[in-house]
Amino acid sequence: MYMQYAFSLATRGAGQTGANPLVGAVVIKNGRIVGQGFHRKIGEAHAEVVALSEAGNRGRGADLHVNLEPCCTHGHTRPCVDAVLAAGIKRVCIAETDPNPAVNGRSVEMLRRHNIEVTFVNPPEYVATLNRHYRKYITTMTPYVILKIALTSNMKISGYAGKYVTREPALRYVHALRGRTGAVLVGINTVLADDPYLTDRLAARRNPARIIIDPRLRISAEANVLAANARRIIFTGPGSDREKIARLQTLGVEVVQMEARHFPTADLLRRIGMLKIGAVIVEGGGKTFTQFLEERTYDEMYVFVAPITVSTGIDVPAASAMIERARPESIGEDILYHVYRDN
Asked: pTM for the complete prediction?
Protein backbone atom coordinates (compact mmCIF):
# COMPACT_ATOMS: atom_id res chain seq x y z
CA MET A 1 0.00 0.00 0.00
CA TYR A 2 2.77 2.45 0.93
CA MET A 3 4.75 1.59 -2.19
CA GLN A 4 1.71 2.13 -4.36
CA TYR A 5 1.32 5.54 -2.75
CA ALA A 6 4.99 6.30 -3.44
CA PHE A 7 4.39 5.44 -7.09
CA SER A 8 1.36 7.72 -7.27
CA LEU A 9 3.41 10.55 -5.79
CA ALA A 10 6.18 9.93 -8.33
CA THR A 11 3.83 10.45 -11.28
CA ARG A 12 3.21 14.05 -10.18
CA GLY A 13 6.66 15.00 -11.44
CA ALA A 14 6.02 13.78 -15.00
CA GLY A 15 7.38 16.21 -17.55
CA GLN A 16 9.23 18.27 -14.96
CA THR A 17 12.27 16.16 -14.05
CA GLY A 18 14.14 16.34 -17.35
CA ALA A 19 16.36 13.30 -17.81
CA ASN A 20 15.98 12.43 -14.12
CA PRO A 21 13.68 9.61 -12.91
CA LEU A 22 10.21 9.92 -11.44
CA VAL A 23 10.49 9.20 -7.73
CA GLY A 24 8.06 9.30 -4.81
CA ALA A 25 8.90 8.67 -1.15
CA VAL A 26 6.87 8.05 2.01
CA VAL A 27 8.12 7.99 5.63
CA ILE A 28 6.18 5.65 7.94
CA LYS A 29 6.30 5.75 11.74
CA ASN A 30 4.07 3.56 13.93
CA GLY A 31 1.82 2.78 10.97
CA ARG A 32 1.28 6.44 10.05
CA ILE A 33 2.63 8.58 7.24
CA VAL A 34 4.78 11.30 8.82
CA GLY A 35 6.47 12.56 5.66
CA GLN A 36 5.99 12.35 1.91
CA GLY A 37 7.38 13.90 -1.23
CA PHE A 38 8.23 13.52 -4.88
CA HIS A 39 10.86 14.88 -7.24
CA ARG A 40 9.10 17.98 -8.55
CA LYS A 41 11.62 19.43 -10.97
CA ILE A 42 15.17 18.89 -12.15
CA GLY A 43 17.57 20.80 -9.92
CA GLU A 44 15.21 20.72 -6.94
CA ALA A 45 15.27 18.40 -3.92
CA HIS A 46 14.77 14.71 -4.55
CA ALA A 47 11.75 12.84 -3.23
CA GLU A 48 13.57 11.28 -0.26
CA VAL A 49 14.89 14.64 0.93
CA VAL A 50 11.44 16.24 0.67
CA ALA A 51 9.81 13.39 2.61
CA LEU A 52 12.50 13.30 5.28
CA SER A 53 12.37 17.08 5.72
CA GLU A 54 8.63 16.90 6.27
CA ALA A 55 9.07 14.08 8.79
CA GLY A 56 11.76 15.91 10.76
CA ASN A 57 12.57 14.20 14.06
CA ARG A 58 9.75 11.75 13.50
CA GLY A 59 11.92 10.11 10.84
CA ARG A 60 14.27 8.61 13.45
CA GLY A 61 13.56 4.89 13.66
CA ALA A 62 10.98 5.11 10.85
CA ASP A 63 10.63 3.24 7.56
CA LEU A 64 11.19 4.90 4.20
CA HIS A 65 9.30 3.61 1.16
CA VAL A 66 10.71 4.82 -2.17
CA ASN A 67 10.07 3.45 -5.66
CA LEU A 68 13.71 3.80 -6.77
CA GLU A 69 17.00 3.18 -4.98
CA PRO A 70 18.20 6.45 -3.37
CA CYS A 71 21.07 8.09 -5.25
CA CYS A 72 24.64 8.09 -3.91
CA THR A 73 26.10 10.52 -6.45
CA HIS A 74 26.51 14.29 -6.52
CA GLY A 75 24.51 16.08 -9.23
CA HIS A 76 22.27 19.13 -8.92
CA THR A 77 21.78 18.07 -5.28
CA ARG A 78 23.61 16.11 -2.59
CA PRO A 79 23.27 12.29 -2.46
CA CYS A 80 19.97 11.12 -0.99
CA VAL A 81 21.79 8.33 0.87
CA ASP A 82 23.43 10.99 3.06
CA ALA A 83 20.01 12.38 3.99
CA VAL A 84 18.69 8.89 4.82
CA LEU A 85 21.66 8.19 7.09
CA ALA A 86 21.38 11.56 8.82
CA ALA A 87 17.64 11.11 9.44
CA GLY A 88 18.13 7.90 11.44
CA ILE A 89 15.87 5.81 9.22
CA LYS A 90 15.61 2.18 10.41
CA ARG A 91 14.48 0.48 7.20
CA VAL A 92 14.34 1.42 3.52
CA CYS A 93 11.83 -0.32 1.24
CA ILE A 94 12.68 -0.09 -2.48
CA ALA A 95 10.81 -1.22 -5.60
CA GLU A 96 13.85 -1.36 -7.90
CA THR A 97 17.54 -0.53 -8.03
CA ASP A 98 18.66 2.52 -9.97
CA PRO A 99 19.81 1.51 -13.49
CA ASN A 100 22.31 4.38 -13.43
CA PRO A 101 25.71 2.61 -13.64
CA ALA A 102 27.07 5.06 -11.06
CA VAL A 103 24.45 3.88 -8.53
CA ASN A 104 22.95 0.47 -9.42
CA GLY A 105 23.03 -1.25 -6.03
CA ARG A 106 25.79 0.83 -4.45
CA SER A 107 23.34 2.78 -2.32
CA VAL A 108 21.80 -0.47 -1.08
CA GLU A 109 25.25 -1.68 -0.02
CA MET A 110 26.01 1.64 1.67
CA LEU A 111 22.78 1.58 3.66
CA ARG A 112 23.36 -1.98 4.78
CA ARG A 113 26.90 -1.18 5.86
CA HIS A 114 25.36 1.39 8.19
CA ASN A 115 23.02 -1.23 9.66
CA ILE A 116 19.95 0.03 7.85
CA GLU A 117 17.66 -2.77 6.72
CA VAL A 118 16.91 -2.69 3.00
CA THR A 119 13.87 -4.55 1.71
CA PHE A 120 12.73 -4.96 -1.88
CA VAL A 121 8.96 -4.66 -2.19
CA ASN A 122 7.09 -6.22 -5.09
CA PRO A 123 6.23 -3.13 -7.10
CA PRO A 124 2.89 -2.24 -8.63
CA GLU A 125 2.33 -3.55 -12.15
CA TYR A 126 3.17 -0.22 -13.77
CA VAL A 127 6.74 -0.14 -12.41
CA ALA A 128 7.91 -1.25 -15.84
CA THR A 129 6.45 1.84 -17.52
CA LEU A 130 6.91 4.55 -14.89
CA ASN A 131 10.61 5.13 -15.56
CA ARG A 132 11.00 3.63 -19.02
CA HIS A 133 12.26 7.00 -20.26
CA TYR A 134 14.91 7.29 -17.56
CA ARG A 135 15.97 3.64 -17.81
CA LYS A 136 16.80 4.01 -21.51
CA TYR A 137 18.45 7.41 -21.24
CA ILE A 138 20.70 6.63 -18.28
CA THR A 139 21.98 3.40 -19.81
CA THR A 140 22.37 4.54 -23.45
CA MET A 141 22.63 8.34 -23.21
CA THR A 142 20.01 8.56 -25.94
CA PRO A 143 16.41 9.68 -25.40
CA TYR A 144 13.36 7.46 -25.19
CA VAL A 145 11.44 7.90 -28.45
CA ILE A 146 7.66 8.04 -28.81
CA LEU A 147 6.17 8.15 -32.28
CA LYS A 148 2.81 9.88 -32.59
CA ILE A 149 0.80 10.29 -35.74
CA ALA A 150 -2.80 11.07 -36.71
CA LEU A 151 -4.16 9.31 -39.78
CA THR A 152 -7.36 8.97 -41.71
CA SER A 153 -9.02 5.58 -41.83
CA ASN A 154 -7.32 4.91 -45.19
CA MET A 155 -3.89 5.44 -43.57
CA LYS A 156 -3.08 8.91 -44.87
CA ILE A 157 -1.85 12.10 -43.31
CA SER A 158 -4.74 14.20 -44.47
CA GLY A 159 -3.03 17.07 -46.27
CA TYR A 160 -5.42 19.58 -44.68
CA ALA A 161 -2.87 22.33 -44.14
CA GLY A 162 -3.22 23.81 -40.68
CA LYS A 163 -6.23 21.65 -39.80
CA TYR A 164 -6.63 18.68 -37.48
CA VAL A 165 -7.79 15.24 -38.54
CA THR A 166 -8.70 14.11 -35.02
CA ARG A 167 -11.27 15.63 -32.67
CA GLU A 168 -10.72 17.55 -29.43
CA PRO A 169 -10.55 14.54 -27.03
CA ALA A 170 -7.64 13.11 -29.02
CA LEU A 171 -5.99 16.54 -29.17
CA ARG A 172 -6.25 16.87 -25.41
CA TYR A 173 -4.73 13.43 -25.02
CA VAL A 174 -1.76 14.45 -27.19
CA HIS A 175 -1.26 17.74 -25.38
CA ALA A 176 -1.21 15.92 -22.04
CA LEU A 177 1.34 13.49 -23.49
CA ARG A 178 3.50 16.44 -24.55
CA GLY A 179 3.35 17.85 -21.04
CA ARG A 180 4.71 14.57 -19.62
CA THR A 181 7.61 14.36 -22.08
CA GLY A 182 10.81 16.32 -22.47
CA ALA A 183 10.59 17.38 -26.11
CA VAL A 184 8.55 17.29 -29.32
CA LEU A 185 10.30 16.70 -32.66
CA VAL A 186 9.02 17.54 -36.15
CA GLY A 187 10.45 17.92 -39.62
CA ILE A 188 10.64 21.26 -41.39
CA ASN A 189 7.89 20.32 -43.87
CA THR A 190 5.39 20.09 -41.00
CA VAL A 191 6.48 23.53 -39.77
CA LEU A 192 6.16 25.08 -43.22
CA ALA A 193 2.80 23.45 -43.97
CA ASP A 194 1.03 23.81 -40.62
CA ASP A 195 2.96 26.46 -38.63
CA PRO A 196 2.23 24.51 -35.40
CA TYR A 197 2.85 25.66 -31.83
CA LEU A 198 3.62 22.17 -30.42
CA THR A 199 2.58 23.26 -26.92
CA ASP A 200 0.41 21.51 -24.35
CA ARG A 201 -2.05 24.41 -24.26
CA LEU A 202 -5.13 22.13 -24.03
CA ALA A 203 -3.69 20.39 -20.96
CA ALA A 204 -1.95 23.48 -19.53
CA ARG A 205 0.72 21.49 -17.73
CA ARG A 206 4.13 22.21 -19.21
CA ASN A 207 5.37 23.12 -22.66
CA PRO A 208 8.03 20.69 -23.86
CA ALA A 209 11.18 21.63 -25.73
CA ARG A 210 10.67 21.83 -29.49
CA ILE A 211 13.10 20.18 -31.89
CA ILE A 212 12.93 20.96 -35.61
CA ILE A 213 14.79 18.94 -38.24
CA ASP A 214 15.70 21.52 -40.87
CA PRO A 215 18.70 20.44 -43.00
CA ARG A 216 18.64 23.57 -45.21
CA LEU A 217 17.49 26.00 -42.52
CA ARG A 218 14.28 27.01 -44.26
CA ILE A 219 12.42 27.94 -41.07
CA SER A 220 11.17 31.48 -40.55
CA ALA A 221 12.26 33.27 -37.39
CA GLU A 222 8.57 34.17 -36.93
CA ALA A 223 7.35 30.57 -36.96
CA ASN A 224 4.97 29.72 -34.11
CA VAL A 225 7.12 26.80 -33.06
CA LEU A 226 9.90 29.26 -32.12
CA ALA A 227 7.76 31.17 -29.62
CA ALA A 228 9.91 31.82 -26.57
CA ASN A 229 7.91 29.82 -24.00
CA ALA A 230 10.11 26.71 -24.01
CA ARG A 231 13.47 25.45 -25.17
CA ARG A 232 13.83 25.54 -28.98
CA ILE A 233 16.38 23.48 -30.91
CA ILE A 234 17.03 23.33 -34.65
CA PHE A 235 19.14 20.63 -36.29
CA THR A 236 20.53 21.82 -39.59
CA GLY A 237 23.14 20.73 -42.10
CA PRO A 238 26.45 22.12 -43.33
CA GLY A 239 26.41 25.30 -45.38
CA SER A 240 23.33 26.77 -43.72
CA ASP A 241 23.06 30.57 -43.75
CA ARG A 242 25.38 31.88 -41.01
CA GLU A 243 23.55 35.17 -40.67
CA LYS A 244 20.26 33.34 -40.18
CA ILE A 245 21.86 31.06 -37.60
CA ALA A 246 23.16 34.11 -35.72
CA ARG A 247 19.73 35.74 -35.81
CA LEU A 248 18.06 32.61 -34.46
CA GLN A 249 20.63 32.35 -31.70
CA THR A 250 19.92 35.93 -30.62
CA LEU A 251 16.32 34.77 -30.13
CA GLY A 252 17.53 32.05 -27.77
CA VAL A 253 17.20 29.22 -30.31
CA GLU A 254 19.81 26.47 -30.07
CA VAL A 255 21.16 25.62 -33.51
CA VAL A 256 22.99 22.31 -33.91
CA GLN A 257 24.86 21.76 -37.18
CA MET A 258 25.20 18.18 -38.36
CA GLU A 259 27.94 16.92 -40.66
CA ALA A 260 25.62 16.09 -43.57
CA ARG A 261 22.17 17.11 -44.80
CA HIS A 262 20.76 13.62 -44.24
CA PHE A 263 20.41 12.77 -40.55
CA PRO A 264 20.27 9.07 -39.64
CA THR A 265 17.97 8.86 -36.66
CA ALA A 266 20.57 7.07 -34.52
CA ASP A 267 23.00 9.99 -35.01
CA LEU A 268 20.24 12.48 -34.34
CA LEU A 269 19.27 10.77 -31.08
CA ARG A 270 22.86 10.72 -29.86
CA ARG A 271 23.07 14.48 -30.35
CA ILE A 272 19.72 15.02 -28.63
CA GLY A 273 20.96 12.93 -25.70
CA MET A 274 23.99 15.20 -25.42
CA LEU A 275 21.52 18.06 -24.87
CA LYS A 276 20.26 16.29 -21.69
CA ILE A 277 16.86 15.47 -23.18
CA GLY A 278 15.67 12.13 -21.86
CA ALA A 279 12.51 11.59 -23.93
CA VAL A 280 11.13 12.93 -27.19
CA ILE A 281 7.82 12.66 -29.07
CA VAL A 282 8.19 12.48 -32.85
CA GLU A 283 5.06 14.10 -34.28
CA GLY A 284 5.79 14.16 -37.98
CA GLY A 285 5.40 14.66 -40.72
CA GLY A 286 5.07 11.48 -42.70
CA LYS A 287 8.69 11.38 -43.88
CA THR A 288 10.12 11.90 -40.42
CA PHE A 289 7.69 9.43 -38.83
CA THR A 290 8.47 6.78 -41.45
CA GLN A 291 12.23 7.24 -41.06
CA PHE A 292 12.08 6.52 -37.32
CA LEU A 293 9.72 3.62 -37.97
CA GLU A 294 11.86 2.02 -40.69
CA GLU A 295 15.14 2.54 -38.84
CA ARG A 296 13.52 1.07 -35.70
CA THR A 297 14.82 3.82 -33.44
CA TYR A 298 11.57 4.28 -31.54
CA ASP A 299 10.39 2.76 -28.25
CA GLU A 300 6.64 3.19 -28.39
CA MET A 301 4.07 4.54 -30.79
CA TYR A 302 0.68 6.24 -30.62
CA VAL A 303 -1.40 6.08 -33.80
CA PHE A 304 -4.67 8.02 -33.82
CA VAL A 305 -7.08 7.05 -36.59
CA ALA A 306 -9.94 9.39 -37.46
CA PRO A 307 -13.20 8.09 -38.99
CA ILE A 308 -12.70 9.90 -42.29
CA THR A 309 -11.07 9.15 -45.64
CA VAL A 310 -9.30 11.47 -48.03
CA SER A 311 -8.22 11.07 -51.64
CA THR A 312 -5.13 13.26 -51.27
CA GLY A 313 -2.44 13.26 -48.62
CA ILE A 314 0.63 11.28 -47.67
CA ASP A 315 0.36 7.51 -47.45
CA VAL A 316 1.85 5.89 -44.35
CA PRO A 317 1.44 2.17 -45.13
CA ALA A 318 4.00 1.12 -42.52
CA ALA A 319 1.61 2.19 -39.76
CA SER A 320 -0.96 -0.39 -40.84
CA ALA A 321 1.26 -3.33 -40.00
CA MET A 322 2.14 -1.89 -36.61
CA ILE A 323 -1.38 -1.20 -35.37
CA GLU A 324 -2.44 -4.76 -36.09
CA ARG A 325 -0.54 -5.69 -32.92
CA ALA A 326 -2.42 -3.22 -30.70
CA ARG A 327 -5.79 -3.25 -29.01
CA PRO A 328 -7.89 -0.29 -30.21
CA GLU A 329 -9.04 2.28 -27.68
CA SER A 330 -11.75 4.85 -28.29
CA ILE A 331 -10.76 8.47 -27.70
CA GLY A 332 -13.96 10.31 -28.45
CA GLU A 333 -14.80 9.60 -32.09
CA ASP A 334 -11.21 8.60 -32.89
CA ILE A 335 -9.38 5.32 -32.31
CA LEU A 336 -6.00 5.09 -30.57
CA TYR A 337 -3.52 2.27 -31.14
CA HIS A 338 -0.67 2.20 -28.61
CA VAL A 339 2.27 -0.09 -29.35
CA TYR A 340 5.62 -0.77 -27.66
CA ARG A 341 8.40 -1.69 -30.08
CA ASP A 342 9.57 -4.56 -27.91
CA ASN A 343 6.12 -6.16 -27.79
From this structure: 0.89
